[in-house]
Design a protein that fits this description.
It contains ten helices and eleven strands. With 300 residues, it is of the alpha/beta class. The strands form two sheets. It has an eight-stranded mixed β-sheet, with helices on both faces. A three-stranded parallel β-sheet has the order 3-2-4, sandwiched between helices. Helix 6 crosses helix 7 and helix 6 crosses helix 10.
Length: 300
Amino acid sequence: MARIVDPALASASFRDEIRLEIHALPEPLTFVGFLAADHGPSATYAEYTRRGCDDVGVKFDLRPVKRLDAEAAVLDANADPRVHGIFIYYPVFGTEQDAYLRDLVDPGKDVEGLHSFWARCLYANKRFIDDAKTKKAILPCTPLAILKLLDVAAVSRVGAARPLAGVHAVVFNRSEVVGRPLASMMANDGAEVVSFDVDGAQLFEPAPQDGAHTVRESAVDRATALAKADVVITGVPSRAFPLVRADEIRSVAACLNFSTLKNFEDDVAQKARVFVPRVGPMTVTMALRNAARLYRNARS
């Protein structure tokens, strides 16, 4: 029987630390969230954000917005010195136009870490944005939340220079929002990651010391990759996805689902060492962590 990790409980200790950081800042923080559609998961994420902000003393202003007004609304929030963090609850258009909106957010207010500026830092394994190495880069909050949950699951060696060295992982999802940055972050921390999407498999190979990971096409199939995996992470928002079964995984595997849909068969929780059924509350916690870091970066 797997140990079930509840992200709400797991995030509590992180919230205690973040609460102290935020209360030590010279002014209270304010987040603005833009919700453009009556989309169930988006509304749920907005509610997680509200609860997380309330818990650590951040003001949260959720603003319903028509999708054609989203651009102007984001630009107004960028220019408002009273706004310290911006959330956009996707999908807004459900097209490539959403990528344009992500890049419209001021990187200094992008608590979700989705701007291309932060992506370039991540893929190059650039952990500071200044030569003096006093200003840390931020990471996208959902992949970062997943790594923190792997810490809780005792998959990683917390505090080590390469905390995932020797770990073999499989990730089903290669989106630019979660799957690809997650595989890159894990490889930068020493893991070997097989990333699957509809176009096939790619192998994210561990970064050398003080360098960035490498990626190459791979012919490995699902069965072979899963039979070797210490970690299995799924985030496929499609009911057509063949659910991961217990007979495909190792008994020592840690399994985590960040999709809004079920990606694992029920029997996985009977066989896996650890099972994490969702990520949402930890994602908000990491956004709060990012906000404190961005505030300090801007004023140091």
